[in-house]
Amino acid sequence: MQEGYIAPMASLIFLTHPEVVIDPNQPVPEWPLNAIGSARMERFTEQLADRDVSAIYASTERKAMDGAAIVAERLGLSYATDPDLGENDRSATGYIAPPEFWDVVREFFSNPHKSIRGWERAIDSQARIVNAISRILREDETSGDIVVVSHGGVARLLTAHLQQVEIGQESRPSHPGGGCFIRIDRDSFALTQDWRNIEDGFAD
Length: 204
Hints:
The protein is about 35% helix and about 15% strand. It is α/β, with parallel strands linked by helices. The chain has one domain: Rossmann fold. Strands 3-2-4-1-5-6 form a six-stranded mixed β-sheet, sandwiched between helices. Helix 1 (about 35-50) packs parallel to helix 2 (about 60-75) and helix 4 (about 120-140) crosses helix 5 (about 150-165). The model has no long low-confidence stretch (mean pLDDT about 95).
């Protein structure tokens, strides 16, 4: 190792799952990744193979576990699940078809202290995801990068916390199918890379 070499800081890579099989006859948490989503995850794992990934976490929703399993298999690791990494609880309504769904989502982010149609409040979802990530950073005993496969809604809420802005004012994933990621410094819990599509790779 060269004198003066500084090892890259370890990150938590927070990933929103990519495209899923939309099945109104199944509970949303049971939806799997579809072929496009799986293929995108496979491509992303090729980029992760060049990094020192030491731990993988996912929510207990099928689509997140599908993504984590693809990463784990490629890297020769196992993955752990945590229900607190799940999406905001929408069980009060179940599946809502677009464009109505997006109208409800906008209302959800615009009124974070209010339960929209019985959904978990945005402020409560934010506290849950922030606490979950804080706990992982505090308790994970590995030293490399951590990959967390989670969901788009709570991703925005986490970003609002990291950017210290009001819910709804945060930067957000841009790909309509999901499959976007941020990086968080493991030591400081600070945002070090804003949202990028998984096809774009890492900024460094």
